[in-house]
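Fold it.
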Amino acid sequence: MVSRELIVACRRGDPEAFEEVVRATYRQAYTQAFRLVGDRQDAEDVTQEAYLRVFRGLPGFRGDAQFETWLYRIVANAAMNHLRRRGRFGDLSADAEDDRLEPASAQQLGDQTVDREAISAALQALPDSMRSVVVLKDVYGLSCAEIGEMVGASEGAVKVRLHRARKQLLS
């Protein structure tokens, strides 16, 4: 967790403080970007863009939320913009009208063993727009309304996409 003192130093323009923030949060930001865009090079580009936005936006960061929460939203928005520019995100609205994490081989959840590599492969097999919604909802805990705001779609459209993605993951 990034300390309030470090953020204050960043806001004063201390470049070493910003470097420390990047070092402390890069792995999580990159992991989120990779999960959203599904490509290592694209994830690096998205992460770089996100940190540029963080740097520019730090003077306006009020600290109402944790820094990491603010950063995750910036990364998610940068990833959505990246996918839109690449023409890979699709139109969530049209579908609705048609009808914190380290890699590990396995983890025990109740009576079920979860193979993270299998989950990762299943997520990568989803279309970008479905994968993004699942990751934002199930990994980062955003509400459907928040996701809709990020991707420019209604809450209902996000729910439809989420339902279809989960159904495809289970099949």
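Residues 96 and 143 are 17 Å apart (CA to CA).
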